[in-house]
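Forgive a beginner's question, but would it be possible to get a protein, spelled out as residues, together with the matching structure tokens, please?
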Amino acid sequence: MKGERVSEPTIVSAPTAASWRRAWWITGAITALWAVVLPARGILQYLRYHMHAFDLGIFAQGTWLLSQFKDPFVTIRGLHLFADHSSYILLLIVPIYAVFPDPVTLIVLTGIAMAACAPLAFVVARRFGAGPLWASITAVLVLVSPAVQWQLRDTFHPEVFVVPLVIAAIALLQRDRDIWAIAAILLALTAKEDVALLVAPLGIAIWLLMGKRRTGLIVVFAGIGAFLLNFLVLLPAWSPTGELLYSYRYGHLGDSPVEILIGLATKPGVWWDTFTGGKQLGYIASLTLAMPMCFLGWRWLLVGLPALFANVFSLHGYQYGVQWHYTAYLIVVVVIAAAAGAGRIEERWVGRKRTGALVVSILVPVILWVMAAPITVWAPAHEHPARISAMLSKIPADASVSAWTTFVPHLADREQIYLFPNPWQNHNYGAEGVEPPPPESIEYVAIRMDSYREYDELIDELSGSPDYEVIHEDHPFYLIRRIAPLAQP
């Protein structure tokens, strides 16, 4: 009609190569800064004696034993390293640890693994269709996520390597590098026995969401095969009792993997109690709201359901706390889903809708970070590290030692190191029916007198015994040495 103004369609220009370079450099700079600051804080936490026997000490001793070509029986835990968990990926760390035999090495590797997730998320988001801005936001939110930052605060666990390996596998699949992607996933399966809970459903997603039927089926069967191999063969073979060591965490559902699955299907009350519990709901919220775009990639979130169920249905409360390593597999699916969601925003949302998504995607994670990130509990300077180090320096490198939990990682490069009150009293040692060695085999006892109220009687007995002498007294830190003949462990 004459006089009527006809609006022209909005033309969105494609991002230029310069804008991509700028986004990549910004993302890289933020990642590099994070990769320095967060591991440095982890190292400071270790140096200030805030890291514990469980679990840094366990992996430090186990990796050190492997690097020395010794039997990796971890005396801290009272188990063979691979009876505790199927963490065969540690074998790849052994050459590095042989050159740098210090728990700091494990902390640095954790930082590198988690930092690598940011540029990988950038690549995945870009290939899902996100532009420079949204690819950068996806990457930065990975680093801001409380769950990611807590992986550094929670010392070292092999599960952290699963996160960059699986995200890298998705990036490789987006480039049709299927063989390399499968190799990355197979390597991830060596990190722990339960990685299969992530990998098997991931294979289904690769088939249905990426259209790679053959690759997806290979991944599914690899996950199922690894699960069966670990739970039916390897873990029972290494176990001192011939049975799985951690099934008690699901004792309300059943006593074996099969019974647990049956229990999930036949006990609806467990479902109700779980998903109406405040801790479990808060756990899910703290994971997903760290990257709100993940809800737009909700189909990828489904990949995490088995791992989520394994966590929230457990009687072990640490499994549904965002600050612990059990969250690692769920970080993977949230990152991939967020990358897919970023692509969806870029391709389908314009104007106020996209602006609103931008505000939510920045504001909500920042609020969550203030509420849930480890910003106030990281390595407070009240442990008198110089005094502790002076005491521990008096212990010979080859001596057998029983020590307070935060002293243990600093003494882990030896064949005999125990978490006090082991071996005098069994405390989280071995499995049912497994006893610690004779106390007479321990040469040094490193303790702090302000942390053992329930063991005061034992400490008084040791310090007052003619078989022992106190060789370092700097209250509350005490070092006791056995002067009577040592027994063989």
